[in-house]
Amino acid sequence: MDVKKYMLDLGQKARAASRAMARADSLAKNTALLAIADSIEEKKPDLIAANKKDLKQGADLEPAMRDRLELNDARIAAMADGLRQVAGLADPVGEITDLRYRPSGIQVGKMRVPLGVVGIIYESRPNVTADAAALALKSGNATILRGGSEAIHSNQAIAGCVREGLKKAGLPEAAVQVIETTDRTAVGELLAMQEFVDVIIPRGGKGLIERISREATMPVIKHLDGICHVYVDEQADLDKAIRIAFNAKTHRYGVCNAMETLLLAESIAEVVLDVLVPMYQEKGVELRGCAATRAIVPEIAEATEEDWHTEYLAPILSIRIVQGVEEAIDHINRYSSQHTDTIVTEDYSIARRFLREVDSSSVMVNASTRFADGYEYGLGAEIGISTDKFHARGPVGLEGLTSQKFIVLGDGQIRE
Amino acid sequence: MDVKKYMLDLGQKARAASRAMARADSLAKNTALLAIADSIEEKKPDLIAANKKDLKQGADLEPAMRDRLELNDARIAAMADGLRQVAGLADPVGEITDLRYRPSGIQVGKMRVPLGVVGIIYESRPNVTADAAALALKSGNATILRGGSEAIHSNQAIAGCVREGLKKAGLPEAAVQVIETTDRTAVGELLAMQEFVDVIIPRGGKGLIERISREATMPVIKHLDGICHVYVDEQADLDKAIRIAFNAKTHRYGVCNAMETLLLAESIAEVVLDVLVPMYQEKGVELRGCAATRAIVPEIAEATEEDWHTEYLAPILSIRIVQGVEEAIDHINRYSSQHTDTIVTEDYSIARRFLREVDSSSVMVNASTRFADGYEYGLGAEIGISTDKFHARGPVGLEGLTSQKFIVLGDGQIRE
Question: Which of A278, B142, B337, B373 has the fewest CB neighbours in a 10 Å radius?
Fold first, then answer.
């Protein structure tokens, strides 16, 4: 197979399809989404059979990866359900805002438009094929999907359902293309096709994301670490503080919006640690503390400079005692990955300052970092969480796959 | 001079200053802008003297470039005026929108925040130093400015005024840094400082912009060509059509929002050309036409494939006759630089279709392409016009120098 030629052809088809998708009305897009959902349910035996092939070939994979790879009844139902949910979301394309008359007599406003062609590169979970296709489709984009080679049969089976749904709705089948080759050079070709791909969204481990950011010739919506903080202020309601600090660390460990560092105002540190330390210890959370923390809880390990920089994704927590909000903000703006950071306080001015000065994609007051999520934020769905500052920050939903052009309505106005 | 070390120092100072700028309240920023304006007026003799040095060293420059380089009373007054206007604009930083309660009880909204450190690279006009500093300052960013080496004395003199104003307002002087060396490697260093510079905005010729886009390791807000179209539809009001087509081409030739290609529906082509051709010819506009155009106006030259791709920036116009709106949209989406395109029509459905389907940063109905401009759009000022699709499209004002983070307000909510 001539991978270069194959990818070029994919790119050209995607660009052509993107024009049709930008024009497509909401009814056609929703019809396609519902038809894909139906097709996924009807073809369940085929999907399971294709997935069995992947699981057989992936017999040597780590258990966690094999688990992510597996399709079962519940996961297939969840895929179909996700597609129907996206069909129910408002269509972002064509939304006109801020349309105002100017002194010249023209009206100037903004219209929301698709980005064009979205490339999405992901790892083992085959459900991403359906989820990503749904979001790209609804937001009027064409998409080129590249899943993990270990999921190739599952992904191609899902791709067949997607094509069937697009066809039923009269939309171009090339609106969603799943790369058929597992040849690794295909990714390099995709990242070089500036002319045909408007944005790349990598979903996966840090290595994948770093490689893609380095090589891509087009913008990348990327999500690197989630080093999230909870700061318990002197003026915190301590019940809330303990509830939030416990939930943010222990609700799930392997997720990007889990807390990795707990910051405590020195005046309340001892009373908070007295309650929290046994709770964490009972849960099996390993604690590492700064010198001041260890003066209160001498049995825990010392947190090193490296700890403040680390996304554990594990039952480990670093704890630091700070003088107050100023030092907390300094620590966060230095070590945070600009993902999600929370303050617990009842003080109005301190809360206001934290919200303004913490430079992260989600900044919270009195809520668990675990809320940083497209569904919890009401975006309806999420293609990823951006820790960049440009274009989209935080959970990226349909809107993040669009931008705004200016529109001008006149009656024959000219510049004098 | 160790350029690498110098630039690294600049970058570190800019990053530190950006934190103070993000916190700075509107009063401090406006105080600085007004103080800079005053300082520019007070230091007028110094600015003129510095500019004389540049003009003397640039004795060999082309007349147009020398003209752009020159500072005189009117231009200095315009700079001060521009600063005062920016002081009068609403502060975009901290604006909270879409704050809504979610079923979990948390409130989720967005807060507008500065991008951080903005690098701006421009050519001869020294007034850009003041304009760009003003916009970056008002939007809460720190900025590193790199002007043309031919304007180094003028730019340093203006930089002195900017520092004085910042100091008076109690803001860090490093919030606006103008690179002091004319060493060309400084640009390469700037473009490599991903850690300290969040976005690069090049202002200048195509060569500069292409080089910067290629080398920059951070996002670039760029403006390449302005190949703008006017399409006169079958249903056009012909008076409006003629007025707009004439204005879009002849109001100014060397600007990016001037029309370069006129598209005419075949049914009205002859009657429009009968009026427009003599008007253009009287103005000295060279016309180049497709075969159908030349069948009506045989004396004009033939437009080649290259013409449709060319931004003339000169009194030259290519003309093509199309069957109707469908072919016009196809032509535009193929050849336009996605800057600004206009339809002239009285037909509601055709206008609606053109607005939706033309994939350009500004799409207009019955208005001259010359309106594509930050001031005309009510942005108050403009740092450039983006022909990209990502982050910002069209004229970029204060808002384009910001992005939005999510904020979450709770009462102790946790994820269950």
Answer: A278
- pLDDT by residue (tens digit) across A176-235? 999 999 999 999 999 999 999 999 999 888 888 989 988 998 999 988 789 999 999 999
- Confidence tier at A244 by pLDDT (50, 70, 90): very high
Q: What is the DSSP string of A348-384?
A: HHHHHHHHHH--SSEEEEEE-GGG-STTTTT-S--SE
Residue B27: the pLDDT is 98
Contacts with B, A 100-119, CB within 8 Å: 100, 102, 104, 106, 108, 111, 113, 115-116
B45 in contact with chain A, both atoms CB, cutoff 8 A: no
B170 burial via Cβ count (<10 Å: 0-12, 13-18, 19+)? exposed
Q: For helices B185-192 and B206-215, give the axis angle rounded to 10 degrees.
A: 50
Asked if A280 contacts A246 with a C-beta cutoff of 8 angstroms, the reply is yes
What's the one-letter identity of residue B404?
Q
User: CA-CA distances (angstroms) from residue A247 to A238, A272, A332, B331?
Assistant: 14, 14, 19, 57
Q: Is the ipTM, as predicted for this complex, more than 0.90?
A: yes
B residues 14..33 contacting A (CB < 8 A)? 19, 22-23
Instruction: Give me the residues of A, 178-207, that contact B with CB < 8 A.
Output: 198-199
Rounded to two decimals, what is the model's pTM? Answer: 0.92
Q: Which residue has the tokens 């630039």?
A: B7
B389 in contact with A, Cβ within 8 Å: yes
d(CA B280, CA B258): 14
Contact flag A94-B356 (C-beta cutoff 8 Å): yes
Chain A interface mutation, best of B357, B387, B414, B416, highest count of A Cβ atoms under 10 Å: B414
| Residues B32, B165 contacting (CB under 8 angstroms) | yes
Query: Cα distance from B56 to chain A (closest Cα, Å)?
Result: 36
Query: Between residues 54 and 93 of chain A, which touch chain B (CB distance below 8 Å)?
Result: none
Residue A398 near residue A380, CB atoms below 8 Å? yes
Q: CB distance B104–A371 less than 8 Å?
A: yes
Does A237 touch chain B if contact means CB atoms closer than 8 Å? yes
B99 touches chain A (CB under 8 A): no
> Chain-centre distance of CA B32, in angstroms?
24
Q: B115: closest CA among B197, B195, B176?
A: B197
Percent of chain A clearing pLDDT 70 (strictly above): 100
Distances (CA, A) of B331 to A13, A20, B263: 18, 15, 9
Looking at the DSSP assignment, which residues form a beta bridge with residue B384?
B396
B263 within 8 A of B229, measured Cβ to Cβ: yes
